[in-house]
Amino acid sequence: xxxxxxxLPAGIGSESLYSGFTEEEHTEDETADWPWYVPNVRKVDEExxxxxxxxxxxxIAYTWLRNGNTYRDMLRRIPKRQRSTFNHTWPEHQTTLxxxxxxxxxxxxxxxxxxxxxxxxxxxxxxxxxxIIIEPRAVNKAYRLGQPLSMNLPTLADIEQxxxxxxxxxxxxxxxxxxxxxxxEDVRRYFRAKINQETYDVCVLPQ
Length: 207
What we know:
The protein is an alpha/beta fold. It has helices at residues 2-6, 46-49, 55-65, 68-75, 92-100, 137-146, 156-165; strands spanning 22-23, 36-37, 43-44, 87-88, 104-106, 118-124, 129-135, 180-182, 192-195, 198-202, 204-205. The strands form three sheets. The protein has a four-stranded mixed sheet, with no helix packed on it.
């Protein structure tokens, strides 16, 4: 959770994390009519994760999924006037795709918006489609100002050592397999999008 959601580098985040994608440029090319890939996958909340988390992990999950004070305090590092606002304009049927997949919903909460997200399609040329990326730029920036971004991933040497010591090696390749993590309503004011002059809450991460 800390790597995939709390720190927010997986599925969302800074441009350096999308080296496998190409952000769509508004030009007339072969990708112009490629469809958006917006899967309606299983939504996982903190309650359904409890059986799989120890006490420390459950505390982290609560902090990032439900506790709005976490984001409020973190965003104090960036004055509100310096937080980017993104005005998205696209055909209504694309908004409907995101709503029907449970990714966004029209805002009904009157609480002022504290941070906006950027939503953009990234071209997957091999599959001739566009995957939707949601980037909470202000949240990511505020987090990085507080502590360096790091992930404890195994090195090539670690993998080689495990391989040499193993009697059997197996692999499974999942074509498309991930869950979306539900954002509690108390934190959605920090994950809002302006689409066709209307305000939407982002309901789940990552994409």
